[in-house]
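thread: overnight batch results

M.L. [08:02]
morning all. the overnight job finished for the chain we discussed friday. pasting input first so we're all looking at the same thing
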Amino acid sequence: MNTSLEDAIGQSQNRTILSRIVGLQVFWVFVAAIVACLALSIVTDTFATERNLFNVTRNFAFVAIIAIGMTTVIAAGGIDLSVGASVVLSAVVMGLFMSEGHSFAVSAFFAIGASLLVGFVNGALIAFVGIPPFVVTLGMLSFARSMALVLSNNKMIYEFGPDQAMLLGIGGGNFGGIPNPVLVLAAIAIVMAFVYRWTRWGQYVFAIGGNEHAALLTGIPVRMMKVTVYMFSAFTAGVAGILMVGWLGSVTTNLGTAMELTVIAAAVIGGARLAGGEGSVLGAILGALLIEVIRNSLILLGISTFWQGAFIGSFIISVVALDGLKKLRGNN
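M.L. [08:03]
and the structure it wrote out:
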């Protein structure tokens, strides 16, 4: 039976708020995270403890902060495989400056600057030279991590000068029982939710990811937008790198290794389409939360963490496959 345009409009208008919420991928990710938390609370005696919940919320915040940047890149139709390298480069620069006696503010300025430089090079090569994002960011992954090795001479940094207490407090402390990285995540999330919804920059990001050619024809500065998108992704990685130094109390060159897979998984599970044009701040946060709950459950249940990659990979394939099936049903 053929459905008329009027019928389709009528069906759309008759959809209740509940049916719209249930139709969102973010809703089911939230449900999965809640179910996993309840199941772990019943099966184990350690999940629902104050200490473990504190660790879970703090650990997922690092991934969620970078996932917001990754969601922006994916929404614009790109991909950033260099976020893990940006994390370690930012952390090494932060550690070196503070160990030489510079203040926290000055060291953070140069650490963020190093990350922004990585994002700028990524964006410029992709937007103005025309090299595919996968190739550019994969090359930058190797280059930035190598720079971290060169700068640190592959030595652990664990002395941070006069502002060491401030650094450790910002990354590993809490305010009112809430880990400081979660507060930083909340601030970035609120700002980016506003930017996505109410600013021209946010609208341009989704327009470019939805149809880059059409965006170019409507006068959107696509090339400059791509540069700023990759710089924002690198910025979030730099912020996470600084916070991780404060949490760990040291810097090693294996920091952020393979983190790009986790971050991409969080963004995709949260609803970001790898084809571009879709994604949300809330989805990135919930995707990161679900991954951290799974990682924590593997530890508490005594399952080898080697399985973590298998779970994350399965989630990515399942989400992309379901998205493909939904598009196929829509076309039919």
